[in-house]
């Protein structure tokens, strides 16, 4: 059982805990440096990225979090969590910092008033079946993906809303709110090692 920490300073911590617990992970909440030490992976929840940023500094978590991320800790950020994972912010509020790790620029609140919050059926080629119904809530978009970053989901207008870079995963939307656990599942697989593709496993078992 992987031990997955959730940064629990602000945001939708409970919803992530429910999704991860349902998938069999051992969940612990991270509010101080000592609670970060024992985790195999970390979730940065949705919420308000500028508030979470400030609280990581108040609680002395900024340096330990940055060290853990650059040390290779698998991290999944949703919405505000994606903002926190970005190396660059197109439009942070004054003084807002990110933790960094993902070689991307993130634009906060990218959908303007009309589309501030919406649910949509999103094409996600890496999932089976390759669509997911997801919730965007004052969501960011990803711009300027570095060479090591792959887009996992792109809106019909071309804007990138989910990315992966090694064992870092970021989504502009909230799979923890719509009950689709396949993103959490994919994240847990980066922690425990991906299972062999069904086709190849079957081939290995039955030569016919
Ligand atoms: N707009 C928020 C931010 O930039 C994110 C909103 C969310 O997490 N639902 O921090």
UniProtKB/TrEMBL annotation:
Gene that encodes it: pdxT
Keywords of the record: Glutamine amidotransferase, Hydrolase, Lyase, Pyridoxal phosphate
Organism this protein belongs to: Tessaracoccus rhinocerotis
Gene Ontology CC: one annotated term: cytosol
Pathway annotation: Cofactor biosynthesis; pyridoxal 5'-phosphate biosynthesis
Highest taxon listed in the record's lineage: Bacteria
SUPFAM superfamilies with a match to the protein in the record: Class I glutamine amidotransferase-like (SSF52317)
Name of the molecule in the record: Pyridoxal 5'-phosphate synthase subunit PdxT
UniProt key word Hydrolase: yes
Reaction equation(s) it catalyzes: aldehydo-D-ribose 5-phosphate + D-glyceraldehyde 3-phosphate + L-glutamine = pyridoxal 5'-phosphate + L-glutamate + phosphate + 3 H2O + H(+); L-glutamine + H2O = L-glutamate + NH4(+)
């Amino acid at each position: 059982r992987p031990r997955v920490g959730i940064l629990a300073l602000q945001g939708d911590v409970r919803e992530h805990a429910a999704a991860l617990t349902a998938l069999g992970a051992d969940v612990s909440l991270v509010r101080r440096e000592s609670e970060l030490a024992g985790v195999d992976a970390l979730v940065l929840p949705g919420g308000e990225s500028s508030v979470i940023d400030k609280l990581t500094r108040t609680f002395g978590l900024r340096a330990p979090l940055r060290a853990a991320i650059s040390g290779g800790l698998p991290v999944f950020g949703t919405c505000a969590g994606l903002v926190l994972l970005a190396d660059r912010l197109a439009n942070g509020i004054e003084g807002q910092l990110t933790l960094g790790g993902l070689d991307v620029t993130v634009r906060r609140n990218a959908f303007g008033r009309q589309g501030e919050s919406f649910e949509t059926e999103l094409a996600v080629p890496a999932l089976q079946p390759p669509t997911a119904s997801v919730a965007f809530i004052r969501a960011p978009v990803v711009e300027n993906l570095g060479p090591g970053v792959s887009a996992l989901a792109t809106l019909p207008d071309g804007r990138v809303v989910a990315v992966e870079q090694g064992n870092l995963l970021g989504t502009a939307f909230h799979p923890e709110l719509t009950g689709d656990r396949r993103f959490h599942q994919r994240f847990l697989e980066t922690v425990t090692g991906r299972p062999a593709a069904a086709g190849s496993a079957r081939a290995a078992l039955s030569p016919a």
